[in-house]
Amino acid sequence: MASLDEETCYVLPDAPTSKLLVYLHGIVPPEKTSSLKSNLQKVVSSAARRGRVALILPRGVQGLAPRSQPRWWGWPTGEPAYTREVAALTARFHEARKKLEKASGVEFTSVYLAGSSSGAYFATLLALHGDFAADGYAALSGGAPLKAAPAQKLTSRPFYIGYGEHDSVGPNARALGEQLRSGGWPVHLAAHPVGHGAREVYFDEAFAFWDIRRGAPD
Question: What are phi and psi of 39, to 5 degrees?
Answer without folding.
Answer: -65, -40
